[in-house]
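Marked as duplicate of an earlier ticket. Keeping the data here for the record.
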Amino acid sequence: MNAHMFPVCLQRLSQGEWFTSRVSACGLFAVAYTRSTAAQQSDLRQLYTQLCHDETPMVRRAAAQKLGPFAAVLERDAVSRDLLPLFTDLTSDDQDSVRLLAVESCGAFAAALSKDDCSASLLPVVQKFAQDKSWRVRYNVAAQMVPLCEALGSEMTRAELVPAYIKLLEDSEAEVRIAAAGKVSAFSRMLTPPLIVSQVVPRVKELANDSSQFVRAALASVVMELAPQLGKQPTIEHLVPVFLNLL
């Protein structure tokens, strides 16, 4: 199939009468975009907007799932202008299955956007969905926390994301605590030793006695990676007892 026909076929799929064709189309946009002319790329962005607002939840789910890969191939200004509003809309969808898939694209958006756009647009979403009523959404927030922190930088992470992460460590659902516990070391790399001791370590001690063995296992796999970040004496004082408790 030549470069001209691919976008044309994708347009037909995107506007198909049956929702299955529109679902299938969502996964092809990233590939088609890199093989299209500037005019065709503009059309593809408009088509994707239509799919993100489709009346059928299955189509919106597919569009939300492929939003990250699509953002990865767009120019930065196009991501900010065209895709970021779609991300905002999808993360406000009344279907939690759409919201949780949209949240999965946080890492891709963080890599594609400027730090200012991340701070203005992604940060409020993460802070909001760390408290979402659906545990699956909160789980995905925990999974995407580290890429977002890396995009925002240490200063913004310390100022804005520590409270959201702590809430995930204390979540009522074990699955969310598992995801958050497994990110303890990676998240803490963005923090100062005093902040780790005051904010993260108390929750680590609680998780070491968690009722779920899977939470304890997730913590055990990463907890000693905190040692180089804390230094010798804080490690002896705070981490060694946790480690011994997990044995």
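See parent ticket for discussion. The longest helix spans residues 135-152.
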